[in-house]
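Reviewer 2 asked us to include a model.

Predict the structure of this chain.
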Amino acid sequence: MGRSRAAFTVAVAGTAAALLSLLGCTGRPHSATSPTATTAKTPATSPAKPPAKGPGVPEDFTGDGRPDLVVAAANATIDGVASAGYLAVVPGSATGADPAHATVFTQNGIGQGPAGTGGEFGAVTVSADLDGDGRADLIAQAGRSTVFVVWGGATASAPAARLQGRAPLTGDFDGDGHPDLLLADDGPAGGTIDYGPFSRTGKPARTAAVSFTPQLPKRPPSYPNLGIPLAVGDFNGDGRDDVVTQWLEDDGDDVPPKATVIYYGSASGLVRGPRLTGPDGKDVHSTYGSLTTYTADLNGDGHADVVDCVLPETQGDTGGVPPRSRVTVNYGGPHGIPARAPQAFDVSTRGLPEAGTGPDAELGRAAAVGDINDDRYADLAFTTTPGGSGESGQSGQSGGSGGSGQAQPAVVVLYGGPNGLTVSHAQTIPGHATALRIIDLDHDGHGDLVIGQPASTVVEQVVTVLRGSARGVRTAHPQTITADDIGRPASQSNTFGYGFAR
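Predicted model (structure tokens):
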């Protein structure tokens, strides 16, 4: 399951405290926020593929054979309760997302209310067909340690299952063909794996405890070492999914990650694997910034690869030159990770477009993986934001900005191939983005790029869908969706599009 499960990959940003983070008929246009690409080409429209039959279509909650888009508005006000949050399932169709037929779920509506202030239902959301009925189910966190399972095909008032845990991840960890659910707990470095299939009450076939104990210097009992699960993928091709974790050393002040570590799936549980490193041989981690992690098969060899986006490590620190934000790739293979030398992209990478102008430019605060051009290689989209220094120095000149002045926020798309990610044919889509998703909403074989764009003084928060094609992202005729398009008041949905389910 792991080798074909790009749609089930998960991104988790920030430190342990940020783990509690998270669309149609064509919506009305918002020209002020519709992005325009600087390198995209527009090919002829490809005919849509007929919907797939039977189980196995990732993120198909309606059961029609097409993937559906799930957008979270975790800070939305529900029944007068601030930040209670909601999730909207927007069906895919032959013409793209269909917001007119969206289903909105709230904690109150699924029979698990009343939602409390700040519960942020759906801030962390993943999907898998837990009960084996051929439709994907939504697994959504609310509060610090509660997870709800909204069963595929459910109406807004259908009952859901309630589980204990946080930071949910899905995968087939024992290789039996049934999706499993990994839930972190509030302990120092562990959680549980609930093995599928599940009953509609949320009861798994069996449950096992897991531990992600870091190999860090021993600390007093009041200073525990933490291990946080981040993402899932089959890195060694054995048919069992593996887990990427962050190791943190908690001194009570939310100290950030010290290492990124693989745990391999096996018939008997998770087995600790290697620490991930960059081309410099150093651990992949962020000391004072943020780390986002994604998994996908970038080189088409049947093994999942790991993409880590590391934000500036000393952001806001004026003393000295801060390390650069970078995107690091570790490739899987028959023997796991590393199958080859790691790869890295930063503002000094030649050919990388719009990478920012200062050494503290941010690459990858939001990112997504998926096959946009239908070449069977996964691609990567990530945000770029100029550094706070506002410089136009040599770091910008050596990268894609070419020294032409201050770079602007943008989304960069790098395409996969037999040798992995490359800057060749990279695309730039100018504009701010708070969240990204690559998903084939029209089921034509090309992943569509979905962009959550922040509200401005002119327009409300908007989600923009750009169609994928054999030549990459098409920027002509973007589809835009707002909270109003799915029947929710914009005034109560100020985070609409800040996160998408995986």
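The longest helix spans residues 394-398. The first strand starts at residue 69 and ends at 73. We have added this to the supplementary material.
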